[in-house]
Amino acid sequence: MPAFLRLPVHPLEEVHPNKGLGFLALGSSLHETLIRLKAQPDSFPNIDISYAPANPLGAPVILNLPANGLRLRFDGFEQTLRLIEVLDFGQIQLNYNNTEFVKLPESRGATTAGPTFRHIYHMMGPTFPGEYLPPASSSSKGLGSYILSYPGVAFSFPLQSSAWKPELDHVSLLSSSAALPAKSLAVYVGSSWQDVREGLLKPNPPSPRLAPSPHRSKDHRPDEIELVRIQGNGKLEMMRRSSPPMQMLLGGTTPQDLVMELGPPDAIYYKNDRRLSIHKTRRPSHQQSQPYGASPTSEDDMTDTDQSSTHSNANNSDDESDAAKVIRDNFHSSSECFYNYFHHGFDIFMSYPTDPSPPFPTSAPGDQERPRTSGRDHLVATKVILHGNVPGSYPFNRYRRVRWVIETGDPMDKNVILDSESPFVALSQHLQQIWKGAYGSDSEEISFQRGMVLNRGWGDSPGDSCELLGGWEESADTAKKEGSIGIGGPGSGNTKLFGFPGLVFEVLKNDAVSSLTVY
Q1: DSSP one-letter code for 485
Q2: DSSP letters for 299-333
Q3: pTM of the model
Q4: Which regions are flagged for Polar residues bias (predicted)?
Q5: Is residue 498 predicted with pLDDT exceeding 80?
C-alpha cells in the first residue's frame, strides 16, 4: 500500500480541557459511554469494569481500557464520567490545537515516552506552580511526582526526590535532567487538579451529566431525566436538567403525552409472558372493601416482572422517526406493551386505566385527593419501572441509571431520605412504619413483605466484550476471588421482590435496589 494511503495505526484523539478526550465527554453516563466503546470493538477490544461489590452505588465505577492506555472514572451515585486518565502515551495518539503530544511508532505495543515539559510548555503555555508528591515507598527508586495543572488538564512528571527544592520554580525543576517525560495525563472539570481532586468522585455532584448523550443529535434529543420524585397516589414528577419538570399521572398520561415529553421510546415490548400468573389468585383479605385497594400491594403487581426487553426481541430502532411511526400506529392498538426508554433509564407500561395505588398515610390532605383517570377505552401509562444499572446485576448496562426519591410527605421525619442510593433495609424499615395497620392482620403483613426470589440468570446471556472484575453481584460477606470474569459468566442472577403500596423493589444480595416498580 502506498505510504500516502496507509491508515494510521492509532486513531487521533483531540484533548479538550474541561470537556473530554475525543468522543469521551466528561459528564456522559456510564451507559452511554459503554455503548460507544462497544460499538467500536476494533478500536476498543478490551473493557475492564471495576467496582465495589459491597457498595456498588457509593464507590466509583472504573473502566480500564488496557489496549488504549486509558482509565475512565465514574462516580457511583450518578454514574457520570468525572475523570479521564491517559496512563500510556504509547497506546493512543493525542492531539491539542493541531499539535501531537508524542510521535508514535508504526506498530502498537512499542514503548513510547510521554511528552516532555518543554513540549507541553510550547503547546499549552505557562501555568501556575504545581504540587510535588514524594516517593510513596522505597521501591519508587527515589522518584517522586510533580503534578502540573492547567485548567481542565493535568500532567504527572516523575522527578528525582533529591532534586526537589521548594525554593526552585517548577520551570527550572521540570526542564532539568532530574525530571522525566510525563507518565500520565488527566482530563477533568476545574481550574486545577489540586482544587478538584478531593471532591471529584464524591456523591451527589452539583452538576450531573455535564455533556449531552453523544450518540443522539442535539436537534432530536429529549432533555434527560435527572431525578424522579415518587409522590404516591399515582403521581410522579420527573425532574429535567434544563426543562420544566414533567408531571406523570398513572392512569392518565397518554402515549401522546410520553412522546411529546420524553421522545419516542427506544423500543416497544409487547407483553406476553404469563409465567407468574399462578401467583395472581390471592389478594389481601380486606382489599375488596377498600375503594382503592388500601392494602399495601396486590400480588398482581408484586409478581409482574415481565417489564422490558431483557428476555425478548424488542422492536428496537435507532431512527427516531421510525419509532414515532410505530407509536402512531399503536395509539389505537389493544395490545398492552412496555415503552422502553433505555437512555432515560426506565420502562413505562401502557395498559387500560386502573385506579392507582393509595396515597401515603403521612402525606398532606391535599395530596391525598384522587386524580382523575382517563376513559377506559384506550391505553395509558399505568406502571413505571425505574432501573438502577447496578454494577454486577444481571441487567447491567441495558439502561442508563436513573435516580429517584420517595416523598412520603411525613412532616415529622423530614430528615429521612428514601432514595435510589439507600440500602433496602433502611427503605423497608421506614415504609413498614408508614403502612403499619394497613393490613388485615400481622400474618398478612408478613406474607406480603416477604421476599419472592426471582432468577434473571436463566435464559439468554447479555455477554459482550466487557469484563466485570470479580464477576457478578455477590453478597457483601462473600469474599471476592482474584481475576476477571465476563458478564455472561457464572452467577445465579437471583434477586428478591418486596412489595409496598404502589411500590415493588427488586433487591440484590448486597441490599442495593436494582429496580423499582411504581404503579
Answers
A1: E
A2: HHHHS----SSTTS--EE-S-HHHHHHHHHHTTT-
A3: 0.81
A4: 286-297, 305-316
A5: yes
Q: Using CA atoms, how far apart are residues 441 and 228, in angstroms rounded to an integer?
A: 33
Those residues whose C-beta lies under 8 Å from the C-beta of residue 226, and which sit 6 or more positions away, are 208, 209, 239, 240, 241, 403
**pLDDT at residue 312, rounded to an integer:** 43
Q: Which residues of 310-345 are buried (b: 16+ CB within 10 A; e: fewer)?
A: bebebbebeebeebeeebeebeeeeeebbbbbbbbb
Tell me how far CA of residue 21 lies from CA of 24, 96, 277, 380, in angstroms: 5, 10, 50, 43
Predicted pLDDT of residue 222: 77
C-alpha cell, 275: 409465567
Q: Which amino acid is at 393?
A: S
Residue 504 reports pLDDT greater than 50 = yes
Q: Helices 255-262 & 320-329, crossing angle to 10 degrees?
A: 170
Cα–Cα dist 179/177, whole Å? 5
Instruction: Please say whether the dihedral angle defined by the alpha carbons of residues 458, 519, 398 and 467, taken in this order, is positive or negative.
Output: negative
Written as one letter, the residue type at 193 is W
HSE at residue 511, side-chain half, CA atoms within 13 A, is: 13
Q: Give me 344's grid cell.
A: 432515560
Instruction: Give whole-number Cα distances, 419 to 115, 173, 401, 474, in Å.
Output: 46, 50, 13, 22
Whether residue 127 contacts residue 150, with contact meaning beta carbons closer than 8 Å, is answered with yes
Q: Which amino acid is at 95?
A: N
Share of the chain above pLDDT 70, in %: 67
Matching residue, cell 392507582 = 356
The cell for 54 is 459491597
Q: Which amino acid is at 166?
A: P
Percentage of residues in the chain having pLDDT higher than 90 = 47
How many Cβ atoms are within 10 Å of 450's Cβ, its own excluded? 11
Tell me the pLDDT of the chain averaged across its residues.
77
Candidates 421, 447, 429, 450; CA nearest to 510 is: 421
Asked whether the beta carbons of 469 and 487 are under 8 A apart, the reply is no
Q: Is 447 helix (H, G, I), strand (E, B) or coil?
A: helix
CA atoms within 13 A on the CB side of 221: 16
Q: Which residues have C-beta within 8 Å of that of residue 22, sequence separation ≥ 6? A: 11, 13, 14
Q: Work out the pLDDT band at 282, boundaries 50, 70, 90.
A: very low
What's the maximum distance between 2 C-alpha atoms anywhere in the chain? Answer: 86
Query: What whole-number distance in Å separates Cα of residue 177 and Cα of residue 163?
Result: 9
Q: Rounded to an integer, what distance in angstroms lies between the CA atom of residue 432 and that of residue 454? A: 22
Tens-digit pLDDT profile for residues 304-360: 555 554 544 444 444 445 555 555 555 445 588 999 999 999 999 999 888 778 888
Three-state secondary-structure class, residue 147? strand
Q: Which amino acid is present at 303?
A: T
Distance CA 308, CA 342 (A): 10
| Sheet containing 131-133, strands listed edge to edge, beginning at the edge strand earlier in sequence | 131-133, 143-150, 153-160, 184-187, 81-86, 70-74, 61-65, 47-50, 466-469, 484-486
